[in-house]
Amino acid sequence: MNRFIMTSLCMVNLLLSVELFGTFLYGQENKSKKINQTDLIKMLDTIGITSKKINGQTVQIQWRGKDLDFVIQGSFIENEDYLYLEAFLRTIDNPTMVAANTWRKILAMNDQIGRCAFIFDETKNRLYLNLKVRNHNLTETKLRSELNLLDEKVHFTRHLWYKDNLKYEEKSVSLFTSGPFGATALSKGKNFSLEGKWIMISGIEKGIEQKYATEKPFVVTYKFSKDQMIAEQNGKEILTQKYKVDSKDHPTTIDSFDDKGNIKRSLVQIVDSDEFSICSPPSNTPTIRPKEFLSTFENNQLILRFQRAK
Q1: 10 Å Cβ neighbour count for 253?
Q2: Distance between CA 305 and CA 203 in Å, rounded?
Q3: Given CA atoms 195, 197, 201, 207 in this order, what sign does their dihedral have?
Q4: What's the predicted TM-score (pTM) here?
Q5: pLDDT digits over 43-98, tens only?
Q6: Which range (112-116, 124-128, 177-181) has the least confidence?
Q7: Residue 177, beta-bridge partner list
Q8: What domains lie within the chain, and their CATH numbers?
Q9: How far is Cα 22 from Cα 93, in angstroms, rounded to an integer?
Q10: Helix/strand/coil percent split, the chain, to 5
Q11: Nearest alpha carbon to residue 94 among 42, 28, 169
Q12: What pLDDT is recorded for position 132?
C-alpha cells in the first residue's frame, strides 16, 4: 500500500514538474527578445548591408543580388510580432493590359515559393515579393538567411515578371478604320478605333480628379487621314495636327505636331473599345513623354478620360 502511495506521489510530482517546465518555457518565449527599427538598422550594418530609415515603421535596403539589384523594404507590423521584407520588383504602368494568363501564373506561383508571396499595390501599380519573418530572437545570421531566401525567390520567379517576361494582351490602336494602318490592327484580332464622337467624362490634374458635368458635356469628334488628325466640336474644326502612334509600347505612345513643328509626347491607355484615357506632359515640357500613367502634384501631368458617345 505504501509502495502504491509513494509511486502515485512520484507520478504527481513528475507531472507537476513537466507542467511547471512547460509554463517556464512558455513564459520565456513570451519574453523573447523582439528587435525594433533601430536594432534592424544596426544588424544590417553589422552584416555589411546599407539601409536607411523611410518612416517610423519602414527601413529601405539596396540589395545586391546574384545578378539583379533591387530595393527591399523592411517593416514592423502586428505589434512588432513580425518583420515584413518586401522586394520591389517593378512598376506595371497598365496592369489591366497584362495578359490574364500571366496574372494566373503569378498567383499560382505563391504555392511554390514557401513563406514568400506576390503582392500588387494598386495605388502605385507596383509588384512586390513579400516574406513574413517572425520577430523572435532574430539574429544577424538569421536575418542574413532570410534576406538570402528572399533573393533566391526573386530569381526563381523572374521568368514571370522581369522586363519583357511580363506578357501583355495584344491590343492594337487604330486611329482610323480604313487604309493599311487599320487593316494591320484588325489582322491582330483586337481593334480599337479612336475615330468617332467622344465625351470627356473626367480629368486628373496635379493628382486631383474632377468629374465633368453630364448635362452639358464636352463632346469632341476625331477624324483621321493617313498622317493628320482633325478634332471637331459642334461641327466646327477646333484642332488639326499631324500625329505618330506606336501601339507596340505599353501604354501606347502618341506624338502630335502642330503647324509650327511643336511636338507633344503623350501616352494613351485603352480601357475597352468604348473608353480611353490620355496622359499628357506639363505644358512647359511638352516634348518629355510621361514615364508613368499617373498625375501627381509633383509631376503636373494631365490625364483626361473619354467615353464613346452612343
Answers
A1: 18
A2: 6
A3: positive
A4: 0.49
A5: 999 999 989 998 888 899 988 877 778 899 999 876 778 999 999 999 887 787 78
A6: 177-181
A7: none
A8: 37-165 (3.30.1460.10), 172-308 (2.40.128)
A9: 54
A10: 30, 40, 35
A11: 169
A12: 92
Higher model confidence: residue 106 or residue 79?
Answer: 106
Count CB-CB contacts under 10 A for residue 55.
Answer: 9
| Residue 197 CA neighbour count, 13 Å, CB half | 8
- Give the tens place of pLDDT for each residue, 260-284: 878 988 888 877 778 888 999 998 8
The H-or-E segment that residue 214 falls in is: none
> Exposure pattern of 123-148 as b/e (b: 16+ CB <10 Å)?
eebbbbbbbebebeebeeeebbebbe
Yes or no: say if 122 and 164 are a contact pair by the CB < 8 Å rule. Answer: no
Question: Which residues, in sequence order, are CB contacts of 152 under 8 Å at separation 6+?
Answer: none
